[in-house]
Amino acid sequence: MKKDEMGPKETTHVRHEAGTENKLKRLQDDFAKAKTLDVATKLVWGDRFLHEYYQHYTTLDALVRIFVSGRFKLTSSVNERLNDLQEMRKFGNYDLLKRTYQASFSHRMSESASMWALYSRKDPFAVRVTIPKDKMERWINSLADKKQSQISDDKGAKIANALVDFHDIVYAAAASQDADRYSIKRSDTLQWMGKTTSRIGKLRDKIKDDIVTGWMKDCEWEQERESRLCVRLPACDTTIEALFVDIPKDVLADMRFTYSPWLAKDQEDKVKSVLQALHESYASGKDEKGKTIPQYYRRSSVQGALNIRM
Fold first, then answer.
1. Residue among 79, 176, 67 nearest 127 (CA)
2. CA 269 – CA 249 distance, rounded (Å)
3. Which residue(s) pair with 158 in the sheet?
4. What is the pTM of this model?
5. Is 96's pLDDT higher than 60?
6. In the chain, which end has fewer C-beta atoms inside a 10 angstrom radius, N or C?
C-alpha cells in the first residue's frame, strides 16, 4: 500500500435490511480465519459503515462548541493527551502519524462504564453523542468531497488535498519478551468488534507497517470498540495542533444525547435545558408530518458506576 493511501478507494456500504446480520456474521467468520495482516485489514476496510449507530463521548462544553461552530475537532495522532500513549510509539509509521489527525467513536450499542469514567472523571457534565449510521456515512462522504474543502486548521485556513477515511480499529496482542503467561497465550492475535479474533504469525514484526498506521491499538483498549475518523495531510506541519471538519446541519439535527451517570440530581434540569437548546437550534422537534420526535436526551443507564467517585 502506498504511504498516502488509507484503506480502499471503493466501498460497498451495508444497509440495515434483511441479511445485514448474516453479512456481518460472514465477515466475522472470515476475519477469524485470516492468517495474514493483509487479509485481516482488507476485511475490516471492506465496508466502512458496518454499525447501526456510532457513539462519541465528550464534555458538555465541547458539545456546545460543536453546535455553535458547526465544526468537529480532530486531534493530532501524536498528541500526548491521547488516552493510549503506546499507540504512537508502538503501532504504525511515526512519520505518517505526525500528519494524521483523528476523532474517535464507539460502535458498541451498550453504554460503557469505563468510557464514562474517562470523560466523567474530571467533568461530571459529560455527554455521549449518538449518530445514526446513515448520517455518519453522509458526513464522512461530504468530507471526502474534493470539490469543496470541509476541513480547516486551527487558524481557520482551509486544507486542500487531505485524505479522509473512516473505519473500525483492530486491537493487537503482539508477543513480547517480558509477557506474562496470559499475554503469551493471546500473543499474535488481532481482535475486531469485541468478539472476533484472528491469529497472525509474527504479528510483532508487522505492527510498524504503513498499513496499520492510525488503525491499530493495543488489546488493552478493546472494550472501546472504536471506529475512527482520520484526516491525513499531504505533508507534515508541526505548527498545526488540530484540524476542524464541518458537520452537515442534518447530522447535527439527528444527534441524540445521553448525559453522565455522575451528574448531580440538582444539575439535571440545567443540562437538559442546554441539550434541548442545542437540538432545537438545528431541528424543530417535529417530523415532516408535524409529529413530535422521540426524546433526544436521557440520563445514563449505567448503574455500576453510580457509587464511584473518581
1. 67
2. 26
3. 152
4. 0.85
5. yes
6. C
